[in-house]
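We emphasize that the prediction below concerns an isolated chain of 261 residues; any contacts that depend on oligomerization or on bound cofactors are therefore not represented. The input was used exactly as deposited, without trimming of termini.
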Amino acid sequence: MPTKPKLGQNFLNDAQAVQRIAASLGDLAGRTVVEIGPGAGAITGALAARAARVIAVELDNALAAHLQTQYAPDRVTVLAQDVLQFDFAAPSAAAGRPLIVVGNLPYGITSQILLKLAASHAVLDRAVLMVQREVATRITAAPGSRDYGLLSVTVQMYGPTESLFTLPPESFSPPPDVHSTVFRWRFAPRFAELEVDESAFLPFVRRLFAQKRKTLANNLRAAGVSARSISAALDEAKIDSRARAEELAIESLASLWHTLQ
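Result of the prediction step, given as a token string:
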């Protein structure tokens, strides 16, 4: 199938990688799987062989029409739609259980899709996603590493992440300019556990990472918090006044949020 570069299309052509991705999803018996951006259908067939139902969400009308001719509609439903507009709740309700998600995400809208999945966490079980290697490194980064930042905290607040394997450019057609990494994301939000408000905590974290190389204190001052409040909060949360956000685990960030309320 011809590709459309403006849609970020790089079709997976590595049969072994297809089987590894499908296996990474775990047991799919009786489950509904949503595939984001199936493209030419490299992974779709492996999913259809394992799952009760596959919903393939493809933005490219020509690719969607082609996929519709390849599979029985009772096993694979192909939707010519932007996944950012897709309602995950409806098929979850129809299935009577949370959905499983898989996808080779377009590089240009990776963050938007991750946020869409986070917003739909209540009806999702787990996801196995392929993204640019550098993005996966940031998503799965641990505190104290140079890659740990706002994206790490945001994604991990909705559940643990795990890097699985990396594919070279030649695993795709046409080959992209970067390596791609497959990671797994299990949806288990931590807001209730940490007793933080989702709508307030994430903007707070954004402020802490606003200038990554600046200290927490400097970023909080830039956000309008008084020096006295910052000093008292850091003391109470037992955080070094010279610490940067990238050094702190999510639990410490939540503790600081509590002390500033």
